[in-house]
Amino acid sequence: MTRPGDHSAQGPDREGRPDMSLCRICGGTVTEFVEFGRQPISDAFLVPGRTDGEYFYHLAAGLCQSCTMVQLLAEVPREMMFHEDYPYRTSESASMAKHFELVAKRFLETELTGPDPFVVEIGSNDGVMLKTISDAGVRHLGVDPSAGAARAAERAGVRARVDFFEKTSAAAIRQADGPAKVIFSANTFSHIPYIGSVLEGVGELLADDGVFVFEERYLADIVASKAFDQIYDEHYYLFCVRSVRNLVERYGFELVDVEHLAVHGGAARYTVARPGARRPNAAVAEFLDREASLGLADLATFTQFAANAKVIRDDLMTLLRDLRAKGKTIVGYGATAKSATAINYCGITTELVPYVCDSTPDKQGKLMPGSHIPVRPPAAFSAPYPDYALLFAWNHAEEVMAKEKEFQESGGKWILYVPDVHVV
């Protein structure tokens, strides 16, 4: 079924700027409010000596004047972002592993109590959430396009399917396993430009009394914290309650609950059901009222956000240059996907930050996308400790600082840039 705005992104114009101005959800006019220039694929870490042919695109975001969905203006082909060698592994963060264990236990205590329930996770990664489901003996399936992530999930005892979730794959899953009582997705649903196909897949697979539950970074928190680096290729949409409600209603669903989450610097958990299947929680109306007071449908809110990003960029570069001029050593901490936006927008080079430490084995020994800053293992961080560490994984600041307390005890200081540039 064809939906308004459900089309492929148009190509760049002669100056390399995207000419797409139609909303991918409703076909309305999208007005650009921020642009970060030429950017690489955020998780495309490079092998030293093999940097030729690196893919770049123009990163800009806009607000739909009709349905209020915030979205990117250029699309990176999905196969270039999510593939066998996709390096992110959810379980490598202790805090996120605990978070998803609690999510699974909640489902087991609520939605998955009936006879032979079935749960499907879209973007299951290494199976950290589904492992608890599997250990409980509940039928499950993780769907992820990364074969490497799926193999990691299977090693953990999780059943996985290497595929993109959409209507055709959902139909195949239903034929093999029956309807799903729960379809879950975390930090994946907003990654998908062709989001209508995913919702059609949910409609194909979800049981009549089932729920589609997804967690995503919350636009209100992104704006309030000035977290400009949450805008990158994988985050095609930035959700708020109003835009999500408009989206799901367009595809025949009803938003029945919303919860605020502390993870990722602020996120929301949305619960969607078939119309009339669940009574909407009062939280939905409360969130909508709060968003109206915050101006999340107003272009002026986002032009101010863009201005804040420029201030952070200038302040951060001034600090880094001043510290290097004084002979101080600085390294990066956390080769995150969002750091691609921060590094390349700010223009951070190896002269300022000679390397970035990260615990992900698949990233170590490679180069950061765009900037080609080397990625080193955690052992390099203390050999010896630098004077300053630029924390790209700022959303895990508490966990990281607790882990690296000896760094601060030795006199080291952290540089953070959200919500403003400051030293800890």
Automatic annotation (TrEMBL):
This protein's UniProt keywords: Transferase
InterPro entries for this protein: Methyltransf_Zn-bd_dom_put (IPR013630), Methyltransf_Zn-bd_dom_put_sf (IPR038576), MeTrfase_14 (IPR013691), SAM-dependent_MTases_sf (IPR029063)
MF (Gene Ontology): transferase activity
Biased amino acid composition, Basic and acidic residues: 1-18
Top-level taxon of the source organism: Bacteria
Methyltransferase putative zinc binding domain sequence ranges: 23-82
Family annotation (Gene3D superfamilies): 6.10.250.3100, Methyltransferase, zinc-binding domain, NAD(P)-binding Rossmann-like Domain, Vaccinia Virus protein VP39
Residue ranges of every copy of the C-methyltransferase domain listed in the record: 263-419
Region (Disordered): 1-20
Statement: the UniProt record of this protein carries the keyword Transferase: yes
PANTHER family named among the record's database cross-references: BLL5978 PROTEIN, TRANS-ACONITATE 2-METHYLTRANSFERASE-RELATED
Protein name: Sugar 3-C-methyl transferase
Gene: apoM5
